[in-house]
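quick one, 144 residues, struct below
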Amino acid sequence: MKYIIMLFFISTITLSCNKDYNDSIQEYIKSHNLEAKKHESGIYYIIETEGSIEHPEVSNIVTMNYKGYYLDDEKFDSSYDRGKPLVYPLNQLIRGWQIGVPLFGKGGKGKLIIPPNFGYGSNPSNGIRSDAVLIFDIELIDFK
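---
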């Protein structure tokens, strides 16, 4: 019985945390007049430029420009600021990118809004906020 109560308590906390993130994401979308679609995984995406009919797979190395920021619009990273795109295996990037980037064709541009469980979660590195919703403006330049 103790285990059932503990399991119920943990699942309730998990569901309420996810709801809070979803509410925050919905508020951001509304306040910025965005027309975002929700992927079955729970990430949100906006395709501004579709790009070609060729789409990357998780096993591809992607070449992308991006700007990453939080719901309060504070930027935390940008390939544009470094003056060169990211070239990296997609399967080694955060899960939100592994789900979202293949939605874009080569040359596509748009936005990914990623809940913490598909981003860096509770144990981020490189100064990323803990349990933060991440927003990325992305430009898929190429993949191979």
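The chain has one domain: 36-143.
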